[in-house]
Specification:
Radius of gyration: 43 Å
Number of domains: 2
Number of strands: 5
Strand content: 5-15%
Distance between the termini: 64 Å
Order of helices and strands: HEEHHHHHHHEHEEHH
Oligomer: single chain
Largest sheet: 3 strands, antiparallel
Length: 299
């Protein structure tokens, strides 16, 4: 009698259990009522994600942190790191525009985001190549002009062929004029004026004027000194506009050199072209694949 009662009790208990691979009974899966499912759905609608700015910024980086394809696309180390948040904003915007549903569609949107990111990287590469070619052209030009001026000065060539040479002559004339106001002109200054303006300052050889060198400086009457000042002023009036014209011409020439160098060298252009063509093909495939997936889902 007792054994029959025990068997009856087992028959009541065993249906509530399932047996695993080891043969040990385990609790049966709990059945969730329809009412409970509806309540869970209602509660989930109240979860709209982070609301604060910091929370949104953190969740935005999920595109990089959890993206199956995006983990390695953003370069975060080295001398020129990329901005993960910028990629995340791009990915987030594409999700909003393309509205993927399911893992397959989300992966295609990730591929599309990566393609656009690489296109932007190609533009940065092109920018860097041009900047490398033109970055120090101004300094190189100034250095070259300085060397040409020094050579012209040493070899006693015409200094009026460059704005720097004319600037040097103007400074020498202004210094001579300053000295004239003191009543004397230094011997070195006289030698410079004779060297660069031999025809205009031949008056220094006019012994009838009464001018003479005293203790290394030329002295003369007020009338003689005024004649020197007039000659200096005439030369300054001629040289100043000439210097402006040459400076403008040199600036235009330098600008033309910079613009002519505003393309990478042929090797860089070829490499960038092949890289961008590859990106375009990959982008086109990802867009077509996403379109196909979405059409299949909506059937």
């Amino acid at each position: 009698m007792n054994s029959e009662k025990t068997n009856a009790e087992k028959r009541k208990i065993v249906p509530l259990l399932t047996r695993g691979s080891s043969g040990i009974p385990k609790p049966a899966a709990k059945v969730v009522s329809k009412k409970k499912i509806e309540a869970n759905r209602r509660n989930s609608r109240h979860s709209t994600g982070p609301k604060t700015a910091s929370g949104k910024a953190t969740s935005r980086l999920n595109a990089v942190t959890h993206g199956l394809l995006a983990k390695e696309v953003v370069i975060t180390r080295g001398d020129y790191p990329e901005d993960p948040e910028e990629f995340a904003r791009l990915h987030e915007g594409l999700i909003e525009d393309l509205k993927p549903v399911g893992v397959a569609e989300e992966l295609e949107v990730q591929k599309i985001a990566i393609c656009y990111w690489r296109k932007k990287r190609a533009l940065r590469c092109e920018h860097g190549a041009i900047r490398r070619a033109t970055g120090d052209m101004q300094g190189e030009e100034e250095h070259l002009r300085g060397e040409m001026f020094d050579y012209a000065l040493r070899s006693e060539q015409d200094l009026e062929e460059s704005s720097r040479g004319i600037g040097y002559l103007i400074q020498e004339l202004k210094e001579a004029k300053r000295q004239v106001t003191t009543g004397t002109i230094a011997r070195d200054t006289v030698a410079t004026l004779r060297k660069h303006f031999p025809g205009d300052f031949a008056l220094f050889d006019d012994t009838t004027s009464g001018a003479q060198f005293v203790r290394g400086a030329l002295e003369g009457s007020p009338e003689y000194m005024q004649k020197v000042v007039n000659t200096i002023d005439r030369q300054l009036a001629r040289l100043r506009p000439l210097r402006e014209q040459l400076a403008e011409r040199e600036t235009l020439a330098h600008d033309s050199k910079v613009k002519a160098a505003a393309l990478p060298d042929p090797g860089e252009v070829d490499k960038l072209g092949r890289y961008e063509a590859s990106i375009e093909r990959e982008l086109d495939r990802a867009l077509k694949r996403l379109e196909w997936l979405q059409k299949r889902r909506l059937k």
